[in-house]
Predict the structure.
Amino acid sequence: MIIDIAWHQFTPVASLIGGILIAISAISLLFFQGRILGISGILGSMMQWQSTPKGHLRWRIFFIAGILLSSWVYNVVFPMPILQIESSYITLIFAGLLVGFGTRMGSGCTSGHAVCGISRLSIRSLIATFSFMLSGFLCAYLFFHGI
């Protein structure tokens, strides 16, 4: 099987800038709030708003709003392609619930462990990221080789 790489979609500069912005966000949150940047943890705490300390709820709302608004602003400046989702709503809901369950079971999402956990030399995050990557490699291999 030959895999055709879409070189016109290769965006190393935009990817580098995005990575730098994520690093700045993680460092800023750690420095100013003493908190680890993990989107699933931030969002999960917002879902339990009654037990979230008062001052913590505000910055979490602003953080999630910033994620949503920045995507909208980026789309205004650099229009993104129209997405065509071919799965049913039931499949999407089930997939979302599985992702949510996995982030709770794994004490964080893949990006949180990979970006913030590994940078702090967390053994748990190193093992989690290794597990995510190995699972992804195996699934991709099996999918592309029809096994």
In short: The CA atoms of residues 21 and 133 lie 23 Å apart.
